[in-house]
Amino acid sequence: MPKVLISDKMDPKAAEIFRARGVEVDEIIGLSKEELAEIIGKYDGLAVRSSTKLTPKILESATNLKVVGRAGIGVDNIDIPAASAKGVVVMNTPFGNSITTAEHAIAMMFALARQLPEADASTQAGKWEKSKFMGVELTHKTLGLIGAGNIGSIVADRAHGLKMKVIAYDPFLTEERAVELGIEKVTLDELFERSDFLTLHTPLTDQTRGIVSREALAKTKKGVRIINCARGGLIDEEALKDALESGHVAGAALDVFAEEPAKENALFGTPGLISTPHLGASTSEAQVNVAIQVAEQMADFLLDGGVTNALNMPSLTAEEAPKLKPYMALAKKLGSLVGQLAHDAVKGISIEVEGAAAELNQKPITGAVLAGFMGAYSDSVNMVNAPYLAKERGLDVREIRHEREGVYHTLIRVAVMTDEGEKSVAGTLFGEDAPRLVELFGIKIEADLDGDMLYVVNEDAPGFIGRIGTTLGAAGVNIGNFHLGRRDGGGDAVLLLSVDQHVDEPILLEVCNLEGVKTVKTLSF
Ligand SMILES: NC(=O)c1ccc[n+]([C@@H]2O[C@H](COP(=O)([O-])OP(=O)(O)OC[C@H]3O[C@@H](n4cnc5c(N)ncnc54)[C@H](O)[C@@H]3O)[C@@H](O)[C@H]2O)c1
Ligand SMILES: O=C(O)[C@H](O)COP(=O)(O)O
């Protein structure tokens, strides 16, 4: 039974779903980095929100970890390249809390416009400072969005209801989508110059870090009000403090901070600052949504191989996964075969699918070929890290699909490009799900690729099979099965032997010295 750790506060629905699906679950909240590193090795899955930081160091101890599920959107607390390199799938729940977060941004905008927190504190302190809290209307004001994705577009929709003019800077927003959303697309500078209210809805990346910089703030309208319910780090906090103190920025409402938990922050106490402790996603509705989604997605992956909302591998639905399973097994074996036989100076690899395989999602088949192929170079390779390892090695990966059926109802061909030209192997499925090799470097041969095997290339001449059988028999190696193939028109023959044990070096040397032998190699599947 797979085992999952929930390490951040999550709606109880998550644990309920894990248990109901047959996944063992522990909930341990508030672990230090050291404590997490100490226990992570026991778990196949880790479910987090934004508090747990999954660093390369912690991943080093995560010897069994297969999947990290983020019950929420932002994944900047997870080192995705390190997780990918380790073969760990990272998934999030990209829509479960978007409405809630957009509503928080709108609430922050109202709070800024009418200074609600200060007015509340003053009133409850018995001051009745009616003339002190003069507000502004939202109607007909310009709202500038930095980022018009899921949350930004919901904010735009709500702002339209408030009769605001919405402009946006988002390099990935198409004109058509902008028209559909009723948003005017502008440059970043124009956005700073025109916005009465400015709200941030981008992830924190190298491009967006500090996007509201000191220089940017200098370009904003005097009296601008700024809302950040996306990520700390998007705004230069020191520059914002100065702009609030000088009165250039009339108010800022921050849900997120560069350092979290923000128990101390230079901005605290600055006039015009409103803050909440990363509450954007904190409604009961959103938390139920993301808890259900993350648990279902992780259980699908751990139990059936289904992949949804993964950030480092292609999606694979729970319905697709069982159909793809035998094709992926075949693909992995073929990848492994070429990896073991032709791994020197491989520059590129092409994966060709034909017939029934061509009707399926090709990405997982490619991933499985690469996992088999890269397994010849590196331990602990899987579908997640194989494409990264292949890229690191500079391997050119090509995918080809032929809808037509050939001799076989389905065929997967894996070809490697080397200095000596192209070499390929091909396989099919016998029945519904039995992987079978049908071609090896241009020679027709039918073989199961299983367990320990011996690959022998020899001159196609009488008496060879007897000689190799006698040699292996004398060395105590039992042959389970043998498969023969030869080039049409004569020349070399190929022998694939299934053996009951790994063939050691001295025996290999004896086989190598047999008359007519050109190549001998052990294989393992
Ligand atoms: N405060 C919270 O509790 C809370 C809750 C949910 C999400 N978030 C954060 O909100 C952010 C946005 O979430 P989303 O669901 O809308 O994501 P999304 O991916 O749907 O949208 C992000 C948008 O940012 C745009 N973008 C990327 N780089 C940009 C750049 N350099 N300049 C301008 N725009 C750029 C993208 O094109 C995209 O349209 C995420 O960082 C997420 O972590 C915070
Ligand atoms: O990116 C998100 O989904 C939000 O920042 C929510 O974070 P939380 O789950 O820690 O509240």
Which tags fit this structure?
525 residues, alpha/beta, Rossmann fold, 60s Ribosomal Protein L30, Chain: A, 4 domains, 7-stranded parallel β-sheet, 6-stranded mixed β-sheet, binds nicotinamide-adenine-dinucleotide, binds 3-phosphoglyceric acid
- CATH class of the largest domain equals Alpha Beta
pLDDT averaged residue by residue: 94
Percentage of residues assigned to helices: 25-40%
Q: What's the architecture of the largest domain, going by CATH?
A: 3-Layer(aba) Sandwich
What can you see in these coordinates?
Its EC number is 1.1.1.95. GO terms for molecular function: NAD binding; phosphoglycerate dehydrogenase activity. The protein is α/β, with parallel strands linked by helices and 525 residues long. It folds into four domains: 3-96 and 285-304, Rossmann fold; 98-275, NAD(P)-binding Rossmann-like Domain (Rossmann fold, 3-Layer(aba) Sandwich), CATH 3.40.50; 316-449, D-3-phosphoglycerate dehydrogenase, domain 3 (60s Ribosomal Protein L30, Chain: A, 2-Layer Sandwich); 450-525, ACT domain (Alpha-Beta Plaits), CATH 3.30.70. Helix content is 34%, strand content 24%. It is built from 17 helices and 22 strands. The chain has helices at residues 13-21, 33-39, 56-61, 80-85, 98-114, 116-124, 150-161, 175-181, 188-194, 214-219, 237-246, 284-304, 320-341, 362-374, 386-392, 464-474, 505-512; strands spanning 3-6, 24-27, 45-48, 67-70, 89-92, 142-146, 165-169, 184-185, 197-200, 224-228, 249-254, 273-275, 348-355, 396-402, 410-418, 421-430, 434-440, 443-447, 452-459, 479-486, 492-499, 517-524. Helix 1 links the parallel strand 1 and strand 2 (24-27). Helix 5 crosses helix 7, helix 13 (320-341) packs parallel to helix 14 and helix 14 (362-374) crosses helix 15. The longest helix has 22 residues, at 320-341. Bound molecules: nicotinamide-adenine-dinucleotide (NAD) and 3-phosphoglyceric acid. Nicotinamide-adenine-dinucleotide (NAD) is lined by residues 73-74, 94, 97-98, 101, 146-152, 169-172, 201-203, 207-208, 229-231, 255-256, 278, 280-281.
